């Protein structure tokens, strides 16, 4: 019988009050709005909880963490979602710093379109990467729509002098190839400026729920800037 990881991970939450500023800086996106600064209760996770005694990544615990983020934001968790949720720590052993959860609704190779939701823990990085053409389709084009939380999207362009993200040491010794910063609040949208552009995303202090709209996704077409990463 599977352990009740939901109960255990809830017990490991660290609750802390912090001021979460939204809309204090506005950038050019599809939707330009300013939101007042608000105060919320944040959640945090212990990285050790996501690894078994032998150091192997515990995907069940990772799924429960993303479910907890969804529930925190009021995202609808439907029957069967947890079982099909894709999770990864990219082989780093630092899941709370570098990882991703994703649920694919549509990935249609014949008609070349995709719809999926992505989930980031607080201050968690989706690795620096880009997409190339494969035998199954063209290089992937994509855009991101933040449903809940806050996301920092990084891509090609003028690099920000002081980025908001904290790149973990397990990712290219704390570096990334691109640093043009776009801050996305709830309801805001950004997209790649070209199909093969390098990009990465960083979750805000309350994590992020992001809807991705794109062309067909083939795992073989994903190229990580950090060759050490493991992409299942």
CATH superfamily: Jelly Rolls
Order of helices and strands: HEEHHEEEEEEEEE
Average of the residue pLDDT scores: 87
CATH class call: Mainly Beta
Q: What's the CATH architecture name? A: Sandwich
What is the tally of helical segments?
A: 3
CATH topology grouping: Jelly Rolls
Backbone structural class = mainly beta
Radius of gyration: 17 Å
Portion in beta strands:
25-35%
Q: Helix coverage percent of residues?
A: 10-25%
Count of structural domains: 1
Shape summary: globular
The description of the largest β-sheet is:
9 strands, antiparallel
Q: Mind explaining what this structure looks like?
A:
This protein is mainly beta and 232 residues long. The chain has a single domain, classed as Jelly Rolls (Sandwich), CATH 2.60.120. Helix content is 11%, strand content 34%. It is built from three helices and eleven strands; from the N terminus they run αββααβββββββββ. The protein has helices at residues 5-11, 59-73, 81-84; strands at 16-20, 38-42, 86-88, 100-108, 113-120, 125-131, 142-155, 180-184, 189-191, 199-214, 222-224. The strands form two sheets. Strands 3, 4, 5, 6, 7, 8, 9, 10 and 11 form a nine-stranded antiparallel β-sheet that branches. A hairpin with a 4-residue loop joins strand 4 (100-108) and strand 5.
Quick recap of the structure?
By secondary structure, the protein is mainly beta. It has a single domain (5-224), classed as Jelly Rolls. It contains three helices and eleven strands.
Give the topology, please:
Blueprint: H1 5-11, E1 16-20, E2 38-42, H2 59-73, H3 81-84, E3 86-88, E4 100-108, E5 113-120, E6 125-131, E7 142-155, E8 180-184, E9 189-191, E10 199-214, E11 222-224
Antiparallel strand pairs: 1-2, 3-4, 4-5, 5-10, 6-10, 6-11, 7-8, 7-9, 7-10
Helix pairs in contact: 1-2
